[in-house]
Amino acid sequence: YALVVAKGGSKLVESTSQGPPQTMRNIKQINARNGTMHMLAAVLSNFMGSPVEDRTGLRGSYDYKLEYAADPGATQMPEATHESNPAEGPSLPTALQEQLGLKLESARVAMRSIVIDRVAKPSAN
């Protein structure tokens, strides 16, 4: 996926917080203090079960609280499978767009990988 700015523009406000950057996620929200879009993309990668690349162009640090419905099927395409449940809150893709002005798009992203040519037992000392 690619994390991009939605049609209406970003709703993020630059952080005035002091201290190190933090982005934390639990079952129904993502909280950030001095969080970067690169950090948000990393958290979303874990949530989606697929790589998410930051293509927002936003280079600042932001404080935000993203609240969404718990969704056990988060590894599937958001547009096709994540329906909002008004009783629990919006789906993650809907919350991203409504609350932060961002969205996830299906995309090809470059990934680093490690190739192991061979494995051998260490020799005795």
How would you describe this protein?
The protein is 20% helix and 22% strand. It has three helices and six strands, in the order βββαββααβ. Strand 2 (22-25) and strand 3 form a beta hairpin. Mean pLDDT is 83; it is low at 74-85.
Alpha carbon gyration radius: 17 Å
Helical coverage, percent range: 10-25%
Strands ordered across the widest β-sheet: 4-1-6
| Morphology | elongated
Count of alpha and pi helical runs: 3
How far the N terminus sits from the C terminus, by CA atoms, comes to 48 Å
Quantity of strands, as a count: 6
- The poorly predicted ranges are 74-85
How would you state the average pLDDT, rounded? 83
Kindly summarize this structure in a few lines.
The protein has helices at residues 37-48, 78-81, 92-100; strands at 2-5, 22-25, 29-35, 53-54, 62-67, 102-105. By secondary structure, it is α+β, with helices and mostly antiparallel strands.
